[in-house]
Amino acid sequence: MHMETTYSYENIILQWPALNGGQEFTARAGPAGYEGSRLTVIKLAARVVDATRHCLKLTHLALSPSAILPRHHHFSCQAVLHSETQTPLTMAFRLPLRRIALARPAVARGFHSTPRAFVKAGDALPSFELFENSAASKVNLAEEFQKGNGYIVGVPGAFTGTCSTKHIPSYINHPNLKSSGQVFVVAVNDPFVMKAWQDQLDPAGETGIRFVADPTAEFTKALELDFDDAAPVLGGTRSKRYALKIEDGKVTATYIEPDSTGTAVSMAEQVLN
């Protein structure tokens, strides 16, 4: 069965500057209410597709950058999504662009930053398949936290300096770790790298901390905790440094580093005490 559907979106907000002689435009899209301020045009399309896939509960997605075409005052893209039954659905997105009138001089125009809607207390965990130890071992944190309470600790990358020498060791060595419930460390890495990192930090497997991989950053993006500032060094989208307290499948407290990578609020001393 093949379907073609046109969607109209209202909520996702993207702003980018210096198009068409220095004018600024805003594109609005998406039923899920996501918000972003430093995204390229291609990443806007990816967010629209992500939002649609999440709403329709589709698990397999492909987006062709060559199909992303800005046309006059509209932005169009086409994505092919596959459901669990592998039935293809071709979805065309047509996003209205509206011009923004600015009082600022052109030299002052740049990215207009709007606050991102990070995960907050009361939010349910998004349901995605992550990987633990290998490509064959999948784990869904939304399901895991139906079995018990605990914490999710997000890091920018396995084997990176602060993550390896300070952040995760603060949890491994904390006296309250054993009484804190389940603890998962999540990074935008592949499962083999995460397994090797776990073996280095907890070689005997005595801590009970589980290291899981979010290789495509789907889970991280759903939490709005992704960032690209480290791309020149780490190679792409990464997770901010954070910790989330989870009870009954919902977030009850957030500890998100304001600069994405520091250790001001997400160390075990602040989270587990």
From TrEMBL:
Q: Which UniProt keywords apply?
A: Antioxidant, Oxidoreductase, Peroxidase, Redox-active center
Q: Looking at the keywords, is Oxidoreductase present?
A: yes
Q: Which InterPro entries match?
A: PRX5-like (IPR037944), Redoxin (IPR013740), Thioredoxin-like_sf (IPR036249), Thioredoxin_domain (IPR013766)
The segment(s) forming the Thioredoxin domain are 119-273
Function field:
Thiol-specific peroxidase that catalyzes the reduction of hydrogen peroxide and organic hydroperoxides to water and alcohols, respectively. Plays a role in cell protection against oxidative stress by detoxifying peroxides.
Query: Which Gene Ontology MF annotations are present?
Result: thioredoxin peroxidase activity
What do the Gene Ontology cellular component annotations say? cytosol; mitochondrion; peroxisome
The record's family statement is:
Belongs to the peroxiredoxin family. Prx5 subfamily.
This protein is called what? Thioredoxin domain-containing protein
Report the SUPFAM superfamilies cross-referenced here: Thioredoxin-like
Instruction: Name the coiled-coil region(s).
Output: none
The species this protein belongs to is Trichoderma gamsii
